[in-house]
């Protein structure tokens, strides 16, 4: 069992150390709250943003193909722009 949970007169040689249990629990809650926020931001930055980037690139390629099919751009220009898109 965690030393701060419950009365512990050995801790800091005090008779009244009950408040340390509350402080310890608050620190644990604070740690997990920060960890969840960091995890959510990393998820959004790397997973959700990558997914939206793929959708955008697919839309750009689709528009480029339509412009080439309708004759707005030449084959050389199509190849050049497509290579820029990846």
From TrEMBL:
Keywords in alphabetical order: Membrane, Transmembrane, Transmembrane helix
Keyword presence, Transmembrane helix: yes
Domain of life: Bacteria
Transmembrane segments: 20-43
Name of the protein: Short C-terminal domain-containing protein
Species for this entry: Parasporobacterium paucivorans DSM 15970
